[in-house]
Fold these 3 entries.
Entry 1:
Amino acid sequence: MTVCLDEDNDVRTVRTAPDFSQARSVIGLDAHPAQPKWAVNTVPHIDTTAVLDPEQRRLWRRYERGLRVVQVGEATRPLASGEYFQRQQVETMVEHLRQEYGNEFQTAISTSSVEPQLQEILTDAGVDNVVRRDATGEVESKKTMHYGEEKSRNDFADEGVGLVEGCVDPGDDHVVDLLAELDLDASPETVDVDGVQERAHGRGFEGPDAETAQEILASVRENHTAQAAGRYARNPDDPDSHATVFVRTDAMPTDFADVQVSGIEWTFTDAQRAIVEELGRPRPR
């Protein structure tokens, strides 16, 4: 058992890893965590080896499973708080996918903070029954999902086209606490703003083990993105089962994307959109 305390000796985390002392090996199915996360959840001295290299995994996913992943743009787009959610860009993306694929596209995955907005965008684009209420009156959705609930979910198994918007972010505390368990030292990078130290933009870390901190952060983001895209094409024994998933983040495992496209370069302003809509109206003869 490992217990992580803060500067006031308050308990931050308590971890009880299974006893692997008699195990010769541990197999992680469909897992992409960094080596430090393996170490805290198994044994500290564990060595990790990939069963398949990235290219083999990509070919298996593409040709055996039928899942095609398209990376849209090169931005990371962390959306844990929803602060950086670019609604107009997402609206444009959803509208384009609806025009291209019609009713074949009707599902999307993102963070819980922006899921309500994503539901509104899908509804405005013509997707039916995005949100409904269950018997208790609670809002539920069969057309959206959020990070944290995606594992082992098969709701989108038969969907042909999907969208994964942005990535999840575990926060600095998760990374720093994990470093403490490993007896490593790094802290969030800060900048001076009017004499006050604030978190630097870009989610960097500083200190002797800053690279390990960055590796932990990246692996959490990447693992959730891979799991989200993996909600599609979940019937590998069916030769007709296949899906194309558009992923708007670069936070994904190496060679996870089959294709990379530039994505949304710019969107209309409200005035520009009004002009285009007006020019597109049919005129009476």
Entry 2:
Amino acid sequence: METALSKATQKRQVSFFAILLLLWAADSEAIRYSMPEETENGFLVANLAKDLRLRVEELATRGAQIHYKGNKELLQLDLKTGNLLLCEKLDREVLCGATELCVLHFQVLLENPVQFFQIDLQLTDINDHAPAFPDREMLLKIPENVQPGTAFPLKTAQDLDIGSNAVQNYTISPNLNFHVVTHSHGDGRKYPELVLDRALDAEEQPELSLTLTALDGGAPPRSGTTTVRIEVVDINDNAPQFVQPLYEVQVPENSPLDSLVVTVSARDLDAGTHGSVAYSLFQHDGASQPFVIDEITGEIRLKQALDFEVTRHYNIEIAATDGGGLSSKCNMAVQVVDVNDNSPELTIRTLTSSIPENALETVVAVFSVSDPDSGDNGKMVCSIQNDLPFLLKPTLKNFYTLVT
């Protein structure tokens, strides 16, 4: 009786210490690596056995595995050498979009005994994209009485790279009438303005064509061009004025295409062609534009679909231009409203198929859950039936173990 009791006590103590070790591993600091994007397949990231302070043969005997969300295999562990190898080229822009710090999170699972480690792999940007303008040509209508020194905003070029590899400067083809100035937004993004140097004369030169070039900061730099076509028109006394300077709207992410977002309105006191108003949209960051405006009615509708998990806010500039080329602007702030459009996903790994009837605190399976929705729509509660002889225990974030 005393011997059996002593053995049972020892088993509970061993299980208790195993759980403490497991929790200690889950809370330990992540192992961090860094590499450039677009690195070739087979690249040696690191020797994981060395960094985990394990003998190489322990990786196989302990059933070492690499896990990434969705079970996509981006890294491969060579159990014979302990080397961590790259399985495929990684595109920073595809994996992280415009996010400046691109870090992929992996988990290392040792099955026997169960132990978790966190791996953070940072992808650094390379200059693999050239600047590109949204249109091959942009049109400016400028009255001939506009004074030298007047600045005209131009559309920005899009560059999927970040930091110094993004757009850094704009130039214009040599001419006597204009020069271009490169400005910076608060977040460092560059945008161009065309500045008038010499008064225009519609009778002398009714139209000009200039080449606008965007250059990034790579070595060597990459570039993209567009044509700026300028129509010099007669004077116009009044510019259009919007009814309100800011339109704030909320749009559910599951709104159907072509649904009406808002209608903007501007008035011009002039008559004839000088009093007709045409509407257009601008987005300075060069990102894909999910909205379209009717240039006559001012109706803004949804055009490519919204996704709260990708983009939550849009800040869009709206221009109203009359027939004489004068324009004014207002802003539209769009807040994308989250909809519970994603179901939780569960990935499970069974560790053992046979369990002794008197085994306590034995890990049966390991699984992870994820939900790309945000806020309350992304919160998950994991549970099992109350009448089962198992317990559900959390380990790393969104990781659980099923124990007897």
Entry 3:
Amino acid sequence: MQVSVFVLVLFCLCLSVYGKNKHEGSIKHDDPMLNTETPNYKEYCVIGAGPGGLQIAYYLESSERDYIVFEKGHGAGTFYNKFPIHRKLISLNKVYTGKTNKEFNMRHDWNSLLSNDESLLMTKYSEEFFPPADVLVQYLNDYATKLNLKVQYNSTMHDILKRKDGLFQMWDQHNNAYTCKYVIVATGIAKPNHIDFPGSDLTVPYEDLTLDLKPYEGKNVWILGRGNSAYEVAQHIMGVTNFIAMMA
């Protein structure tokens, strides 16, 4: 039976920090050993090398703090290697403001991070009002490299726990232990929030959408959600669809 209505669901994304405890049964969270050993100690542990993690790292570096940034990807800002799926940012990059005041211009630059290096501005990387997502990835990696930020890539952290002595301890995917006084979680949007409801098995989540317009031609499309990604998709397909309904 042919389905006349192409149903599309854009799922919200949620943050998942802890996950299943891989050490359950072998290391108890109140084990005395966790109060006597401090493997790979850093005062600050930042999890995630996206815009938030890198901005925090800049201030920690500038203040000469003892810190490390853990990033599960092979480079900075790897989230933006896939998202947004239509590869255009929706954050402003207004190069020509008619003003020379740096503070005024920064208010029209929604992508740049703060630093003392004026070459590290997104307006130096693209003149497009909505830059390509790939440009942001390049910018974030240059930001981390040029400012000598201490980022450890290919490190997926799990089992974050607080010890009796007040320190935090965690492990990477190779079961190497790390200890720190402060943990800053900067993972941002981590996992899709798949909503279960009657008919949800007939929907297509945002992360699996095709950019091919052929499946949408002449169809009625229902978009669940009215956030940024919802409007992004609606704008992409509106030229070939019969009707688009958005529900929040």
